[in-house]
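Subject: design request, 544 residues
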């Protein structure tokens, strides 16, 4: 026990002291050292004297996470596995079976096999539940089962999986896997090029540059850059992508921090590819961080027309800091500002409501800024598109349905129960939506609104005060009305939900690459972008 405590407490404690004395926090050294000493002695006493055996590592992990959760969701402690996951995310390379896997409802599930990679060649499909890896059953496996799928290139791993109630076994040859930052680009028509940028990894700028040059060689006179669903990544990659469309020496983004050395002003450093080619950028509520630097700065510079729905609103910059034993902390060090001077951070984590929740900046508190041409833009709530579409996206209801994986599961069932002959013209009907609503009911999907929570709390208080008899009828009527409102909200979001289901179903047949082919013919945002680019006067009117 003493050896464990020495490793878990004394060594990290000394490391922290060394770190602190070398930082800009020297003025607060005494208070920091005092609090660390209090915590260290408390930690020692608990582990030495608590009535039952304790696990120092688990206690420390809980303590660290509890401390950080009061800051913001992007400041995170990263263990060795997390550090490796971050490396993969930044580089886009790893060794494994070539499939996106996720723990869904305590089950290891294939979310998406990558085309022509080992899992795909072995016959695995989205929705397959892996129940055994080698000789290890996953039923009671407590660690990250996904790690068992990784290994040296050329080695094999045997997996047993369930599909529609039947068990199957496959032997998969591990290989090097590249997750492309630009998974797709092609021509929409004889004049319009289309590029999908899905993440800002180390290869984002080089792959985007290749796509732009290739499409121009094919005859592209105008471009659509799709950033929908792109959660961001490396800031330098975002700056280099902006640089492709604006002159060298142009201000792109500024970061401001309480630590002066983190205050940075980023300018374009290279010669551009094309500063004249008309450009439309697609964004949605899942376009965040680096996606917002690209879309926000090009909007501020009147260099692109933004189409879609309001972006996520992440105006914070993180930097990893090395800790001991191969761990790191990813810490928010600054806010970033687009060329007009606006910060698009949407949630205020430093002035929370009475429930301790971060609150969205109210519209009346938005500040007005001006683009290069004098157009009005605003801070406080993400990047607002110049042409807004899909206003019903990302509601609390649709988010709850997605988080419960019900769209994914419904698409899996649909794939095995229906045969689609013509994917390019595939379209779900109102009857399909009714089937989906029945599926939600059969799955016992339950979505509790904040209003319901407040009513239930009030009713529980009424019980304590013996008033429940007097208000029970009114309470039940209100709950019934809310349930009807939720059904109405489901119908209001019909088009968006059918869109999400369609995307999942299409991927089952023709992978993600085929989905983008489908988008080119059927996606409303791409159609709108093509329409805007097809009329030079309309395009310029957006930028005046």
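Subject: RE: design request

Done. Sequence follows.
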């Amino acid at each position: 026990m003493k050896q464990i405590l020495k490793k878990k407490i004394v060594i990290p404690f000394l490391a922290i002291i060394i770190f602190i004395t070398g930082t800009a926090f020297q003025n607060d050294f005494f208070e920091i050292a005092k609090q660390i000493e209090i915590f260290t002695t408390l930690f020692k006493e608990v582990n030495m004297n608590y009535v039952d055996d304790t696990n120092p590592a688990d206690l420390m992990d809980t303590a660290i996470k509890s401390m950080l959760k009061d800051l913001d969701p992007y400041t995170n402690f990263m263990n060795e596995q997390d550090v490796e996951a971050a490396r993969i995310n930044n580089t886009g390379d790893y060794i494994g079976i070539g499939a996106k896997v996720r723990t869904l409802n305590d089950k290891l599930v294939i979310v998406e096999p990558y085309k022509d990679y080992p899992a795909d060649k072995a016959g695995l499909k989205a929705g397959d539940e892996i129940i055994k890896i080698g000789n290890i059953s996953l039923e009671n496996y407590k660690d990250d089962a996904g790690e068992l799928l990784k290994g040296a290139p050329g080695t094999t791993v045997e997996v047993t999986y369930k599909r529609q109630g039947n068990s199957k076994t496959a032997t998969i040859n591990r290989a090097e896997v590249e997750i492309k930052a630009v998974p797709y680009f092609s021509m929409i028509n004889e004049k319009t090029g289309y590029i999908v940028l899905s993440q800002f990894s180390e290869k984002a700028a080089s792959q985007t540059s290749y796509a732009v040059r290739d499409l121009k060689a094919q005859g592209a006179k105008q471009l659509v850059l799709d950033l929908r669903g792109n959660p961001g990544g490396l800031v330098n990659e975002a700056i280099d992508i902006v640089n492709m469309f604006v002159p060298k020496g142009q201000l792109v983004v500024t970061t401001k921090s309480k630590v002066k050395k983190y205050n940075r002003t980023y300018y374009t450093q290279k010669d551009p590819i094309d500063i004249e080619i008309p450009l439309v950028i697609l964004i949605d509520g899942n376009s965040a961080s680096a996606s917002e630097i690209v879309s926000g700065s090009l909007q501020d510079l009147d260099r692109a027309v933004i189409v879609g729905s309001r972006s996520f609103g992440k105006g914070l910059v993180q930097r990893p800091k090395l800790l001991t034993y191969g761990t790191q902390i990813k810490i928010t060090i600054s806010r970033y500002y687009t060329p007009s001077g606006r910060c698009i951070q949407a949630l205020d984590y430093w002035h929370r409501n009475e429930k301790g929740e971060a609150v969205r900046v109210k519209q009346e508190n938005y500040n007005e800024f001006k683009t290069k041409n004098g157009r009005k833009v605003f801070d406080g709530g993400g990047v607002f598109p110049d042409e807004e579409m899909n206003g019903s996206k990302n509601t609390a209801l649709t988010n709850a349905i997605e988080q419960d994986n019900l769209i994914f599961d419904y698409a899996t069932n649909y794939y095995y129960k229906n045969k689609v002959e013509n994917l390019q013209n595939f379209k779900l009907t109102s009857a399909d939506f009714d089937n989906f609503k029945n599926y939600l009911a059969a799955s016992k999907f339950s979505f509790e609104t904040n209003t319901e929570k407040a009513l239930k709390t009030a009713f529980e208080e009424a019980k304590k005060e013996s008033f429940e008899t007097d208000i029970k009828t009114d309470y039940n009527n209100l709950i019934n009305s809310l349930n009807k409102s939720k059904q109405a909200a489901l119908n209001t979001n019909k088009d968006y939900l059918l869109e999400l289901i369609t995307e999942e179903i299409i991927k089952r047949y023709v992978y993600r690459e085929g989905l983008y082919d489908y988008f080119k013919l059927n996606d409303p945002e791409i159609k709108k972008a093509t329409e805007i680019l097809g009329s030079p006067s309309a395009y310029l009117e957006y930028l005046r």
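The first strand starts at residue 76 and ends at 78.
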